[in-house]
Structure formats: C-alpha cells, structure tokens
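[agent] plan:
  1. take the single chain provided in the ticket
  2. run structure prediction with default settings
  3. attach structure tokens to the ticket
  4. add a short note for the reviewer (M.T.)
[agent] executing step 1
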Amino acid sequence: MENQEIKDVFEAFFRKYRKSEGDDNTYTAFWSEIYPGGTVEIVMTRCPEDTTFKFFVDKKKVIEVKEWDAFFPAMRQFSQDYSQLFDPETFFSGMREMT
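[agent] step 2 finished; step 3 output follows
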C-alpha cells in the first residue's frame, strides 16, 4: 500500500471513528490488530495544534511522532523493529474494511 493510500485510509477511519477527548477540540481514533505473537496498535490524536501518532506493542508505547511527514518514516522503522507482528498492508487493509 502506498503512503497516500495509507493516509487516505487512516483519515477516513479517523473521520468515522474519532472520539472526543473531552474538550471538543481534541479527537482520537485507534486501530489494533491481535496476532499470536502480540498486539499492535496505532493511535491518531488530532487537536488544533497538531496531529500525533503513537505506536504500541502489547499496550506499551514504543514510538510517538507528530504530523504525517514523521509518520511514514516511523511506520517503516516500526515495521522493521516489529516485523514479526506488524505488516502495514495487513494492518491498513483491516482498517480500510471498517470504513
């Protein structure tokens, strides 16, 4: 899946499933996949100042970046570091099915 397609899928998912963080200015949406070796989750939080992405493995945050320009290098690194758990194609295909 190309970067723009991943961005489009995540943005569509975010619009559909985002939840307010209590102040009507900050919204969060997450997607997780459970595999035999563990759980992978990516959380997107958007507020007026920025967009933040957090990558989790087994509920432990391993990467946090801001904005789309940093997301894709972080995703590539995450994919390398956790190749036994995270396949972007599978992960974002599941997210796309929910939109």
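[agent] step 4 note for reviewer: The chain has a mean pLDDT of 94.
[agent] ticket updated
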